[in-house]
Amino acid sequence: MTANNEIPETPPPPRHYLVACGGTGGHLAPGIALAQALARRGHAATLLISDKPVDARLAGKYPALGFRKISAAPLSFSPKKLARFLAAQTRGLREGLRLVREKRPAAIIGFGGFTSAAIVAAGLLRRVPVALHESNRVPGRATRLLARFARLVWLPPGVAAPGMDASKIRFAGLPLREEIRPLPADAARARLGLPPGGPVLSVLGGSQGAAPLNAWALAAAPALAAAGVRLRVITGLGKQPADAPAGVCVPFTDDIPALLSASDLVVARAGAGTIAELVRCETPSVLVPYPQAADDHQRANARHFAATGAALVVEQDALAGLLPVVLSLLRDHGKQLAAMREALRRQAADDPLPQILADIERLS
């Protein structure tokens, strides 16, 4: 017999799983992490993704994993967008039913977002067990709507879930891809073409970029350069400013471990995936929650994380005051950054994958 958070020593016979995880990097990256872990246990997984460029780009890094596009669209109540949602989800249901017949999955795991609904419905119609993972501290609409049909729902530790069946809930954080590991700072900087020494500030707007953070970074660039701070901005695909200084802005990075390990400080949105990567790489941050995030979940993520001592929070409408905060952190001889790294170190040892894998194998 094993404890709930332990993987059985002897794996069960190989099984196939369907993992719905497309739409954003915050959904796809943990799906890839789960597929990698399932493969290490001798299982196989098909990851269901959207037709967004961010999905194609990230999926292209993992040729050993199986990906399939599934039709989907976000829910909206404007007439035109609602029609698009219904048409796409109907196509997705047909595609999902074909996939279930083809793959005969032992279970379906959904990571939230608009790609989950159709395949979960297909699983229910074919009596396939369904599990859901919610990474944000406010469960998203997809999780709330689909939880009643799932056998298991993973939520971040300590999150309340009014209206959800408590017997279905397990607490587990966001799984990270096996390559997300801290690197020595000099090696990380060399990988990015940055010289050793001197403070490095990176600005991240999530997998799709953030125009307000990009604009702030470009406006702050002269003052940062005058203070000896090297700046790296991940702008998001299609959002690279035409007047960006050479070598400062890149539209996308595949090398998050190098970026975070090279950085003394990161200014970022507060998606659950970004926060989990900051923890794993032990990188201090100033979080700027996206104010239009569904159910204001980024603000909840940021405030919880800041309460651990690992980050500061600056609201988007207070970006005018961000530069003094950043310069103060980088100029205090590392004292506050060291305290933030210690808070990160206390969290970095927690790996949710053993519990998630054990739950999946018992479920199926």
Kindly describe this structure.
The protein is an alpha/beta fold and 364 residues long. The chain folds into two domains: 16-178, Glycogen Phosphorylase B (Rossmann fold, 3-Layer(aba) Sandwich), CATH 3.40.50.2000; 185-348, Glycogen Phosphorylase B (Rossmann fold), CATH 3.40.50. 41% of the residues lie in helices and 14% in strands. It is built from 13 helices and 13 strands. The protein has helices spanning 25-40, 53-59, 79-103, 116-125, 141-146, 185-192, 211-226, 256-262, 272-281, 297-307, 322-331, 335-348, 353-363; strands spanning 16-20, 44-49, 66-69, 107-110, 130-133, 152-155, 169-171, 200-204, 230-234, 249-250, 265-268, 285-287, 311-313. The strands form two sheets. It has a seven-stranded parallel sheet, with helices on both faces. Strand 2, helix 2 (53-59) and strand 3 form a beta-alpha-beta unit. The chain is globular. The protein starts with 15 loop residues before the first strand and ends with a helix. The model has no long low-confidence stretch (mean pLDDT 91).
